[in-house]
Design goal:
The complex is a heterodimer of chains A (about 140) and B (about 575). Chain A is an alpha+beta fold and about 140 residues long. Chain A has 3 domains: about 55 residues, Single Sheet (N-terminal domain of TfIIb), CATH 2.20.25; about 40 residues, no CATH class; about 40 residues, no CATH class. Chain A has 3 helices and 6 strands, in the order βββαβαβαβ. Chain B is an alpha/beta fold and about 575 residues long. Chain B folds into 3 domains: about 190 residues, Dimethylsulfoxide Reductase, domain 2; about 190 residues, Rossmann fold (3-Layer(aba) Sandwich); about 120 residues, Barwin-like endoglucanases. Chain B has 21 helices and 21 strands. In chain B, the strands form 6 sheets. Chain B has a 6-stranded mixed beta barrel with strand order 16-20-17-19-18-21. The chains are: A alpha+beta (about 140), B alpha/beta (about 575). At the A-B interface, β1, β2, α1, β4 and α2 of A face α3, α11, α13, β9 and β10 of B. β4 of chain A pairs antiparallel with β11 of chain B.
Chain lengths: ~140, ~575
């Protein structure tokens, strides 16, 4: 049996039940998941996704660099990869220009029911306090 | 969630998962719990098998829970209000009400009682197809139970009458007094892992974090002070919802959209419309793990870290705030969404400084009353259910004990309204959508897991064997399913789970995107689209699936770029 380099307790990212799981890691790879028996939510149980549905984290098509293109007509390719500084400077510049020209309510933010509380808090704060719009929503309705 | 906010003052699940086994009656409607929330489904089955609880299922399909149900009411999709009104009618007619509870803790009873006076079980039967006697039995079982829990999910809310459906459930709990104690209450099962948290954090156009209304001047002043920005920064008018944002993009009102961790190109209704909307904006930024359908349309794509690569918190369906912890490094240059957002805010001139997620959480807790007493230090020792107002408070498993958030529980008189689009001669079948056990939502995660993909590799359309015989369709035949908005191809699955005249499909498969078919008619209050009912026609295609290349390809559908 493989001996893990470490075992990390976390929360399953699939549905709203919030099962507590242990991620077993070897050489930087996630190779095994088990349910936590000390969790009042799942009492050690896991469904098929929670036990076997984590290959996506090491999927070969994960995004690994910011991509920036100036013509939406051309499909993304390796040459569109850029640095964080270049990508975020561009995003900030375009958002500022659009806000100055058309007002803050010409910009909208879609948050995520898959991201953390901290991330959602920060993006809605960015929308409301920095850009100045309440155009903030996510897929709660979907 | 707007329904419960109106009747109780809070839109969240009122009870805890751990209390399910203590209920002696479970009323489940519009939730295929064993497939969409399997571990809660497990608790329900345990309550029935091990602890003798009874189960009433109100659902058009013969889902797994039907095997555990004392009573299965199979209503026609979209007729929930008729059935629930009739159950209320019987509870009042036969004096099964909890009069003390109604007197002490509710308001609006008399008007409500008058409104259901003519909702006889027979009238509901004519509309819904549920036998009148079953409606009477359900009323007695629910009202006579010592502790009864009502559960629902998107099967109740994803209708143009979604808010009314929720209020109709709420009326039952108030009539019988099944709320405000352990193992009772109104329990909407939230879909995504952190949809509760995203709502709690103000990921909605009308509220700041903690459901504090943007329309309220005192609240705007509080946030201006808390965030150190001028009061004038905040408008008093709520912003736009997802559906309105897409409409706004088409009209030219919305010029830029920033999307974090969502794929509206798969999950939104009437996809053709979404494509046009995203195409119309001047500037589109997508921040995600994968080059998904939406990212393919963006000007800038930002690589985000996944759940196993970052620190933070999720809030589950029972309001339990729990930590996620980093186990591995993000690939390449990918970074956590919070770090990207922080960088972007600083570039837009905001003087933000955070040491990390714990620091962000601590600030959030100062402006969000429900989270005020929660800290990372406490969460290290286990999850906490909000509201948790102080550092000593243990958290709140059961809401509305002794008093509702809004004071008194509000009865709501409801009229039955049929769905926006019903079958007709041209589109004779009723399409309803949902999930299966092996995949999740748009499939971004589950379809990249070979084990799951092998079990459920292709989109299926469930139809009743009688309909199949009439159309000459055999198991596995490719079907073209067409609505007024688009068409998709899926493999026929013959099953009695769906009634004759019904087609059931999931939205897990990008190559057969069911939301090309669905209608973007929305509930007038909650603005939730009616995914659960639209009209379609089906026809058999002359070729087998593998010739179409459907579902046999387990490679990621959008290999974009390798490491630069």
């Amino acid at each position: 049996m493989i001996q893990p380099d470490r075992v990390v307790q976390t929360t399953c990212p699939y549905c709203g039940v919030g099962c507590q799981i242990d991620l077993h890691v070897k050489d930087g790879l996630l190779y095994r998941v088990n349910g936590r028996f000390d969790s009042p939510v799942n009492r050690g149980n896991l469904c098929v996704k929670g036990r076997f549905g984590f290959d996506f984290i090491h999927a070969p098509d994960r995004l690994t660099a910011p991509l920036l293109r100036h013509d939406r007509g051309e499909p993304f390719a390796a040459r569109h990869a850029t640095t964080w500084d270049a990508a975020l400077d561009h995003v900030a510049g375009r958002l500022r220009a659009i806000r100055d020209a058309h007002g803050p309510d010409s910009i909208a933010f879609l948050l995520s029911a898959k991201c953390t509380n901290e991330e959602n808090y920060l993006v809605q704060k960015l929308a409301r306090a920095v850009v100045g719009t309440h155009n903030v929503d996510h897929c709660a309705r979907l | 969630m707007a329904g419960l906010a109106a009747t109780l003052g809070s839109g969240a699940m009122t009870d805890a998962i751990a209390n399910i086994v203590d209920a002696d009656l479970l009323f489940v409607t519009g939730s295929n719990t064993t497939e969409a929330h399997p571990i809660i489904g497990l608790e329900m089955k345990r309550a029935v098998r091990k602890f003798g609880a009874r189960l009433i299922l109100l659902d058009p399909r013969e889902i797994e829970l039907a095997n555990f149900a004392t009573l299965h009411l199979r209503q026609r999709p979209g007729t929930d209000v008729a059935v629930l009104n009739a159950i209320a009618h019987v509870i009042i007619r036969d004096n099964l009400t909890n009069l003390n509870f109604i007197e002490e803790r509710t308001e609006g009873f008399d008007a409500f009682a008058a409104s259901v006076a003519d909702w006889t079980p027979e009238r509901a039967e004519a509309i819904s197809g549920v036998p009148a006697q079953d409606i009477v039995d359900a009323a007695y079982l629910y009202a006579h139970a010592r502790n009864a829990m009502i559960f629902w999910a998107m099967g109740i809310t994803q209708h143009t009458t979604g808010t009314d459906n929720v209020k109709a459930c709420s009326n039952l709990a108030l009539l019988a007094g099944h709320i405000g104690r352990p193992a009772t209450g109104l329990n909407p099962l939230r879909g995504q892992n952190n949809v509760q948290g995203a709502c709690d954090m103000g990921g909605l156009p009308n509220v700041f974090p903690g459901y504090q209304a943007v329309a309220d001047e005192a609240i705007r002043r509080k946030f201006a002070a808390g965030w150190g920005v001028p009061f004038e920064t905040f408008g008093a008018k709520p912003g736009l919802t997802v559906t309105e944002i897409i409409h706004g993009a088409l009209k030219g009102d919305i010029r830029a959209i920033f999307i974090m961790g969502e794929n509206p190109m798969l999950s939104d209704p009437n996809l053709t419309h979404v494509v046009e909307g995203l195409d119309a904006v001047e500037f589109l930024v997508v921040q995600d793990l994968f080059p998904n359908e939406t990212a393919q349309m963006a000007d800038v794509v930002l690589p985000a870290a996944g759940f196993a690569e970052k620190l933070g918190t999720f809030t589950n369906t029972e309001r339990r705030v729990q930590l996620i912890r980093p186990a591995i490094e993000p690939p390449g240059a990918a970074r956590p969404d919070w770090a990207i957002t922080l960088d972007l805010a600083q570039r837009l001139g905001a003087p933000w400084q955070y040491d990390g997620p714990a620091d962000i959480f601590a600030e959030m807790a100062t402006v969000t009353p429900q989270y005020a007493g929660i800290t990372y230090e406490r969460l290290e020792r286990g999850g906490i259910q909000w509201p948790c107002p102080t550092a000593e408070h243990p958290g709140t498993p059961v809401l509305h004990v002794g008093k509702f958030t809004r004071g008194k529980g509000l009865f709501c008189a409801l009229e039955y309204r049929p769905p926006a689009e019903l079958p007709d001669e041209q589109f004779p079948f009723l399409l309803t959508t949902g999930r299966i056990l092996f995949h999740w939502h748009g499939g971004t995660m589950s379809r990249r897991s070979p084990g799951l993909e092998e079990i459920a590799p292709e989109a299926e359309a469930e139809i009743h064997p009688d309909d199949a015989a009439r159309l000459g369709v055999a198991e596995g035949d490719p079907l073209r399913v067409t609505s007024r908005r688009g068409c998709v191809v899926a493999a026929a699955r013959l099953t009695r789970r769906s009634s004759p005249g019904m087609v059931f499909m999931t939205f897990h498969y990008a190559e057969s995107a069911t939301n090309l078919l669905t209608i973007d008619a929305v509930d007038p209050t909650a603005k939730i689209p009616e995914y659960k009912v639209c009209a379609v026609q089906i026809e058999k295609l002359g070729i087998r699936n593998y010739e179409l290349g459907i579902g046999r390809d387990t490679e990621p559908s959008n290999p974009l770029i390798p490491n630069p």
